Amino acid sequence: EIVLTQSPATLSSSPGERVTLFCRASQSVSNNYLAWYQQKPGQAPRLLISGASSRATGIPDRFSGSGSGTDFTLTISRLEPEDFAVYYCQQYGNSPLTFGPGTKLDIK
Amino acid sequence: QVQLQQSGPGLVKPSQSLLLTCTISGDSVTSNVVAWSWIRQSPSRGLEWLGTTYYRSKWYHDYAESVEGRISVNTDASKNEFYLYLNGLTPDDTAVYFCAASITGGMLILNFWGQGTQVTVSS
């Protein structure tokens, strides 16, 4: 099973700033099948990015993903107040699909 | 756009079984390009995939090793629903359970999610 680690565990930032979240896999993710989700309290996760870099329908272009192999990043170019949430990476290239432990992005 | 509505009990006694329902709108449970999954989330385990079912001329099922032998994911085409059945519950199964849909063929990208059901295992 591929283990995903995310860093930092918590990130404090301010609206308007640029942030980068990291996801590292214990082995190479097949075909870079890596997704990112955003989760707010009391809600289900929401798909942001799939295939490491493809934004899901309706996701603003301030969200971007990159990376390959074992190292992936999610960048939010200019934080909006609604972006403060927990972010998870998930790999779906190898069975079983697995999730990272999450990065909590909170307001400084 | 697929929408998923979950229903089921919030409290289950230890050793009993759990049955959760996910009602689908906007697509068919027998679609040849969609996969239907259950995921749970707890403070101790984080997000954990439990199982997936999909129809490609016949039904396929895939389950996590952590719950293999205790889990079944089934469907009812007449109701356009899919179900999670989990038996032999222990307090460790306490979690928020989500159903999800992957509309991208064979890739388990979790495009749409149900609202979640808090399940507590306690006597």
Overview of the structural elements:
The complex is a heterodimer of chains A (108) and B (123). Chain A has 108 residues and is mainly β. The N and C termini of chain A lie far apart (36 Å). Chain A contains no helices and eleven strands. Chain B has no helices and eleven strands. In chain B, strand 4 and strand 5 form a beta hairpin. Chain B starts with a strand and ends with a strand. The model of chain B has no long low-confidence stretch (mean pLDDT 96). The A-B interface holds A 33, 35, 37, 43-47, 50, 56, 88, 90, 92, 95-102 and B 46-49, 62, 64-65, 98, 100, 104, 107-111, 113-116.
* SSE ordering of chain B: EEEEEEEEEEE
Q: Tell me, briefly, the overall form of chain B.
A: globular
- The total of helices of chain B stands at 0
SS-based structural class of chain A? mainly beta
Question: What is the arithmetic mean of pLDDT of chain A?
Answer: 97
Features:
heterodimer; A: 108 residues; mainly beta; seven-stranded mixed beta sheet; four-stranded antiparallel beta sheet; 11 strands; B: 123 residues; 0% helix; globular
What is this entry, summarized?
Chain A is an all-beta fold. Chain A is about 0% helix and about 50% strand.
Task: Give a topology summary.
The complex is a heterodimer of chains A (108) and B (123).
Chain A: E1 4-7, E2 10-13, E3 19-25, E4 34-39, E5 46-50, E6 54-55, E7 63-68, E8 71-76, E9 86-91, E10 98-99, E11 103-107
Parallel strand pairs in A: 2-11
Antiparallel strand pairs in A: 1-3, 3-8, 4-5, 4-9, 5-6, 7-8, 9-10, 9-11
Chain B: E1 3-7, E2 11-12, E3 18-25, E4 35-42, E5 46-55, E6 59-63, E7 71-76, E8 81-86, E9 95-102, E10 112-113, E11 117-121
